[in-house]
What does this fold into?
Amino acid sequence: MGFPPELVTETDAVSEFLCAICVALPESPMVTSCSHVFCAACIDEWMNGAGRQGVTTNNTCPTCKAELPTDTDVTPAVQELRVCNPLAWRVLARTKLKCPLHAQGCDQIVEFSELQSHLASPSLHKGENTPGNGKRSAEANAVAIKDQGNAKFEARKFTDAIALYTKAISVCPTLVSVWSNRAAAYLMLGELAKCVADCNTVIKLDPAYTKAYVRKAKALVEQDRFREAVQVLSDGRTAIGAAEHLDNRALAEINQELAKTTTIVSDFESAKSLIEVGRFSDGRSLLARLLRETNSVSVVLWTAKAAVGLGQAAQALRLTLQVLRRERTNLLAYVIRAEAMHHAEQLEDGIKLVREALRLDPDYTQAKTLFKALKGTRQSLAAAATAEQQRDFETAKAVYTSLIDAGVPEAAPLYASLYSKRGNAHCRLQDHEAALRDCAKALYVKDDCKSAWLTRRLSLHALGRHEEAFNDMKGLMQRWGQTDTAMKHAYHKAEFELRKSKRVDYYSLLNCRKLSSEGEIKQAYKVKAMECHPDKHGDKTPAQQKEMENKFKVLGEALEILTTPMKRQLYDEGYDKEAIDERAQAAQRAAHKDGSPNGHGHGHG
It folds into this structure.
């Protein structure tokens, strides 16, 4: 995992850098949030529970047992020393160590930061009669260099490991294990052709070397050469079985890998068949298991294709981007990604992507078909938007219906958008029940579809369901209200409509019309007041008397508000008594804000 402390020439200077798990000087020092240093491989093994039965994760520091942050926390649990504490890293980088190959005769002392270049130097550690080697054999030195490469591999420094393995191969080209280990490092870096080449060399040197067949097969699977991988493992099984000394463990290992690879081939073919007949969920379930075994382009792309079929555009976009970073000219990746953009309503980007695919292959049928579909959707949406601007909501509704009927997957963002837009058209046409149904479909797919929430509010108010509308907006204010002006306005409007629905209808109470004059209102008040005056109901029960008192009081409120021009105007606009009183008080405060005792504004200078 790291370098033994005895290699350090000044041990006191590095005591704080020693890994508490392996008690070595970390080759790739990592620091926990509680400031303790560990090897990258050691702390990874500790936190991920490797080798500890029944343990999957461990979020405590091995040194102080403090709780380490989780992935959801802002501060990471572990960081590189060079990143989180550059000063400490510089101190460590200048630390002098004996060459790790001192047992092989190298007596040089090197700074920590120069160890890799020293170990990989082509002029050192070659074997007998070369500088700094004493009288060690080339093979012994190659093994020692390989061991240093293995340490780099465990620290996941695969490029450094390859440099050391390459050095070991130059020292002793017939050392089979070095070729095999370099193939493993190439496999980890995704340099698959180089992995296959090294495995071929190993097989020539030792036809019964199990790991060479296994690693070559894995590289071939990553290259989508599934059947070749099966054949390689079958050949390996034959070679191992024919070896002079049969290794039963090696035979069991290659049989296990052969069974796994055969299953990959079978499951992949089954998944493709399921997706081709529209059973996207079943196909994706199979592919999800395969993705735990391989990142083959074909497996990734067919997983993306299944995601598109299910309307899960975000996953398809992520997977196709992963492929295009590896293969910039993969036409199927272009098409699947463009189709995902179609479902995500990213039409312009989708059209650009299909054009690029057609530039690479003008005869690519799938790209031609998709190009037509993308342009058709763009044209239809533009037509619907124009119809809405012209207040022709019947036409807009018809366009959205035709797009929905074209068969957009239910989980796609475009599906939610189309139902939201059609819901708005229904609302404008006063078909509020239909509007609510469409909004419900949109929100089931995309809970953060703001346009659907706003349309739903309008239809609920139109149907007199003010309490529901207000409760919706109250919940949404907690999500977006502080940053979204439209949502904040909708909340206040819903609150207003709810309060309006609960206020007393003063005109009905007085048996007046909204256009009644002030005199008519006062006369109506006198009639009603005589009916409800408490003195006229002394013979009633206490409850009835209380009811008349309350009604008489409300009649007084009605008279005050409907005979005061400003208050009546506010009432006619929909404000309740509480809001009217608040605004009246605000107007009075504004009139006296200059401190004028007579309330006539500015005084004379």
